[in-house]
Amino acid sequence: MEVELIEAGWLSILPPLIAIILALKTKEVYSSLFAGVFSGMLIYCLKTGRSMLEAVCLVLDMLAYKIGDNGYMILYLSLLGSVVVIVTMAGGSRAYGQWASGKLKSRRSAKIATALLGALIFIDDYFNCLTVGTVMRPITDKHKVAREKLAYIIDSTAAPVCIIAPISSWAVAVASEVGGEGGLSAFIQTIPYNLYALLTLLMVAVVCVTDFDFGKMKKAVETAKEQEYGTEEEEKELDGIKISDKGKVYDLLVPIVALIVCSILGMAYVGGFFQGTTDFATAIGENPTAGLTLGALAALFVALIMYIPRKLVTFHEFMGGITAGVKLMVSAVMILALAWSLSGVCREMIGTGEFVSGLVKSVNESVKISGGVLGGSGIFLSLLPALVFVVASFLSFSMGTAWGTFGILIPIVTMICAGTEGAEVLIPTLGATLAGSVYGDHCSPISDTTILSSAGAKCGHIRHVETQIPYATLVAAVCFAGYLIAGFVRNPWITLGSSVLLLAAVLGGMAYWQKKQ
Q1: At CA 257, angle to CA 251 and CA 260, rounded to 5?
Q2: I need a labelling partner for 202 at 20 to 30 A (CA). Which of 210, 270, 330, 410 fits?
């Protein structure tokens, strides 16, 4: 798709805002995303002297381009959906749910187990979202954990874990943006300054161990206690395909383990590790979705050789399960395609990222010129981590991509922090960039990880978004205060310790207030 990048100014932030506001207002995500994409194309056509008909054609062009450009992701989702359906048909999910119900005997233990599994799968966030949902949903359903709560736990242990794991696709992406041989070293130094990721994991621990909830999540949790999830719902989704009563626990565990192992090996293979062209950490970040697709295909093959000889499913049923699995993922793929298209319009056509980054540059230059407005550049540099956190949050929320956000902002941050004085706040500001990118991505209805978390938990997408935002924003507010401290103190452990204490105080105050009501 050949288009030129234009400068649309303030208009460039309208398409994502339109999509987000409509989605939250109407609770209908498809039309809201389409409206965002179409409004972006209208802005582009008005600026370049094209007609409305051309805007419609460009919407279709962008959709086709993004579907082709993300073909491996669509294949991966389709194959993973097939694995989920076939494992369910063979009775593996049911057997695992019955076994785990005996081991995990409370709602609390089910939530804790979900969070721990999410923390263990740190290689890739897409993989995390769908795998944790597949494995843990039967157990959380059994204990009547709200699907909204499950989606929150999945989403909050996906990107937040990946962004602080030195061996992950995210670490490689960040290190490449920082550049130079010290890219990975700089990433490791940002970990204690990545307040949003660390405090979100702490927040998840609190939510799992206690019964503390607030806002729309509290209502969802109360509703779930009266709701029935499980076998009937699965059979309805599988269009009446029967579920075997001969399945064993290992009929779920073996394909999932095969999926995990083969996905990691697949990422390493695609990235050139086994060919000796690169190291393991770099290889897994080279083309992770291609490696994940290989892993999903391997898991399907393992299921084939496990189930058919034992007559858990027939060959005809197995192939029907593949088709049913693809159907299961159609909704997620449609939302992703529209979200990718909206991101494409903003990044590749109307310059949303360039506009926001230009604002950051202009503020920096005005401070240098005016000198005394903010007390000189020294005060500005001290405020920089907090300011960058806000900018990264807004940009990531608008575009629905953490990777795109830190790809835009990291070069600007390194430029602003060039020099002896600026070097002191470089690492805190890079940490703030990553944290803000994850927070915005975490809240955005057009984020791919938010969409996949909804799919993994089988939770309504907008319900997931509106129940998660208050939790994420509470943590982000504490992070903003933490980055104000970081800019002046410039010590990671004092910053992190202060932020943890502040979050604990806020949560304690909220819990006390709830008891008084």
Answers
A1: 140
A2: 410
C-alpha to C-alpha distance for 180 and 100, rounded to whole angstroms: 47
Q: In 3D, which of 40, 372, 457, 458 has the Cα closest to residue 380?
A: 372
Position 373 pLDDT exceeds 50: no
102 CB neighbour count, 10 Å cutoff: 7
What average pLDDT does the chain have? 82
Between 5 and 481, where is the model more confident?
481
State yes or no: pLDDT of 167 exceeds 70.
Answer: no
Which one is predicted more confidently, 363 or 282? 282
Residue 454 has pLDDT above 60, yes or no: yes
Residues 6+ apart with CB under 8 A from 342: 15, 16, 19, 33, 36, 37, 40, 400, 446
The confidence band for 374, taking pLDDT boundaries of 50, 70 and 90, is very low
Best CA proximity match to 121, nearest among 294, 263, 300: 263
pLDDT tens-digit series, residues 40-74? 999 999 988 888 888 999 999 999 998 988 888 88
Question: Over the stretch 403-430, which tens digit does the pLDDT of each residue have?
Answer: 777 767 777 777 677 655 556 788 899 9
Helices (H), ranges, 92-146:
92-103, 107-120, 125-142
The yes-or-no verdict on residue 336 having pLDDT over 90 is: no
Alpha-carbon distance of 390 to 384, in angstroms, equals 10
| DSSP per-residue letters across 59-103 | HHHHHHHHHHHTHHHHHHHHHHHHHHHHHHHTTHHHHHHHHHHHH
Domain positions in the chain: 9-69
Q: For the CA atoms of 251, 146, 125, 352, what is the dihedral angle to 10 degrees?
A: 150
Count CB neighbours of 228 within 10 A. 10
Task: Name the nearest CA neighbour of 229 among 462, 459, 461.
Answer: 459
**pLDDT of residue 191 exceeding 70:** yes
Helices 448-457 and 330-348: angle between axes, nearest 10 degrees: 170
Residue 374 per-residue DSSP state: T
Confidence of residue 230 (pLDDT cuts 50, 70, 90): low
Distance CA 195, CA 396 (A): 16
Whether 497 and 468 have beta carbons less than 8 Å apart is answered as: no
Distance CA 130, CA 453 (A): 7
Residue 269 CA to residue 292 CA, distance in Å, equals 11
Q: Residue 403 and residue 394: Cα distance in Å, rounded? A: 14
Closest among 415, 346, 380 to 177, alpha carbons compared: 415
